[in-house]
Design goal:
The complex is a heterodimer of chains A (about 160) and B (about 280).
Chain A: H1 2-19, E1 25-26, E2 29-30, H2 33-42, H3 52-64, H4 69-89, H5 94-119, H6 126-159
Antiparallel strand pairs in A: 1-2
Helix pairs in contact in A: 1-2, 1-3, 2-3, 2-4, 2-5, 2-6, 3-4, 4-5, 5-6
Chain B: H1 8-26, H2 31-60, H3 65-108, E1 114-122, E2 130-133, E3 146-148, E4 153-160, E5 165-169, E6 176-182, E7 186-191, E8 198-204, E9 214-217, E10 229-237, E11 244-251, E12 260-264, H4 273-276
Antiparallel strand pairs in B: 1-2, 1-12, 2-5, 3-4, 3-12, 4-5, 6-7, 6-9, 7-8, 8-11, 9-10, 10-11
Classes of the chains: A mainly alpha (about 160), B alpha+beta (about 280).
Chain lengths: ~160, ~280
């Protein structure tokens, strides 16, 4: 049930990511809702972080994007692995884990995407890419993190209420 | 105090006084006096009238408040429905205007065959500038077909499924278009960037370009048909040590508001890559 919910959530996030969210831009950056949903779901109480969800997220975004599927699968799986690793290290402070995972996950996905674009002879300036795309995306992700986290927490409680309630 | 019949002087004095008062009143000289005298009376009259009206309303108020509320709710629902219809009609008018402009564009170039398509999505990666349209191979679309709007060149199809296609915009960092500037008739190579800015490279140093010159497709390379408007030159940069000039271009198409586009379906892009093979 939990896995099915996670896949449905990621599917909904991907649809929003393709249709609505690219219109909400800061400079050239846009929100990565799929990554936010992936990490907040993985770090919910009673959920054991599973890096394979990153694989699913990468497949979904890869289907919608012009980038090769493999690039996005590697990127999102790496973000999920970072989240799983951090959960074991600093699991006591969930929000701190979430923020750190989001920061490192966004950087990882952008770095892998940029590496691919550079290797495929796309004339991208590293400074422009960081200042105009990565930093604004990070800021937008952080802004959207709190409401998405609240929504997914409520959904998680709805699906599996805590044992003492 | 009645005037005596046998006192004609008293009667005459009274008549003169009455005529005087009448004349003063007709001349408007007594208006302030009347106003001053009547204003307290009017105040009292107004106060009494509003109180009476309130009591009358209270007594005559309809007993069936529930039916009024129901009618109010129905009217509100009808109002909301009409508002929705107005919004839908406004959208249809906007879409109609857009289609009319596209039709004008298509009529101006009768040599081309077009397939209209709606933009239904954008690439989720902020590094790429691609859109997804709702027409695919079932509608005769093929990879490489140019895409235009009523304003000018949009891009070209890079991937096709049965019911949808992916279009690479000319603002994409990987996009390159052979262009010709007018009126100078000089050729160059237009490139996109991650910031969506368009720039032209490989312009000969001797070319005399001005801001405001038109930029059109040249047709060289066989990827796009010729003479499709791209935009206007906004800035020319010439460096003493450089081999070529570069220019910035203001695109004619507003890529943030793309809704409906036209695919030129009778244009077959040429693959000239075998001719570029040096045979080394």
């Amino acid at each position: 049930m939990r896995t099915l919910t996670a896949v449905l959530l990621l599917l909904g996030a991907t649809l929003l990511q393709v249709t609505l969210l690219p219109r909400i831009r800061m400079l050239q950056g846009s929100v990565d809702l799929v990554l936010i949903v992936l990490l907040t779901w993985m770090l919910q109480e009673d959920n054991r972080p599973d890096w394979r969800l990153g694989l699913v997220a990468g497949l979904m975004v890869g289907y919608a994007s012009a980038l090769p599927d493999l690039i996005l699968i590697v990127g999102y799986t790496l973000a999920a692995l970072i989240c799983q690793l951090l959960h074991r290290r600093i699991w006591q402070v969930r929000m701190l884990t979430l923020l750190t995972s989001l920061l490192l996950g966004t950087l990882a996905i952008h770095l892998i995407t940029l590496s691919y674009l550079w290797l495929s002879d796309n004339p991208l300036s590293a400074g422009d890419a960081f200042n105009l795309v990565t930093l604004p995306t990070l800021l937008l992700n952080l802004i959207l993190l709190l409401p998405v986290n609240a929504l997914i927490s409520e959904l998680n409680k709805l699906i599996a209420p805590p044992a003492n309630s | 105090m009645r005037p005596s019949r046998n006192n004609p002087y008293q009667l005459a004095a009274l008549l003169v006084a009455a005529a005087g008062i009448l004349l003063l009143a007709l001349g408007g000289y007594l208006t302030p006096l009347f106003n001053g005298a009547l204003s307290p009376v009017e105040g009292v009259q107004g106060w009494l009238y509003t109180r009476f009206q309130a009591i009358q309303d209270f007594v005559n108020a309809p007993v069936n408040i529930a039916s009024l509320r129901q009618e109010n709710a129905e009217l509100r629902a009808e109002n909301a429905q009409l508002q929705t219809e107005i919004i839908a009609l406004q959208q249809q008018v906007t879409e109609g205007e857009l289609l009319s402009a596209l039709l004008d564009f298509a009529r101006a170039r009768p040599e081309n065959t077009y397939q209209a398509a709606s933009v239904i999505g954008q690439d989720p990666s902020p590094f790429l500038h691609y859109v997804i349209i709702n027409r695919g191979s079932d509608d005769g679309l093929r990879r490489g077909m140019p895409v235009v709007s009523q304003q000018g060149l949009v891009g070209r199809i890079t991937q096709v499924t049965a019911t949808a296609s992916r279009v690479e915009l000319i603002t994409d960092p990987g996009s390159q278009v052979s262009v010709r500037m007018q009126p100078s008739e000089v050729d160059g190579l237009l490139s996109g960037s991650v910031t969506s800015q368009l720039s032209i490279d490989l312009i000969p140093l001797e070319a005399n370009l001005q801001a405001g010159d038109l930029v059109l497709t040249s047709g060289i390379g066989g990827m796009y048909p010729g003479n499709i408007l791209i935009g206007q030159i906004s800035n020319v940069r010439r460096e003493a040590t450089a081999l070529f000039q570069t220019a910035s271009v203001q695109p004619a198409v507003d890529f943030t508001r793309l809704e409906i586009v036209l695919v030129i379906v009778n244009f077959q892009p040429l693959d000239i890559s075998p001719l570029l093979d040096t045979g080394e």
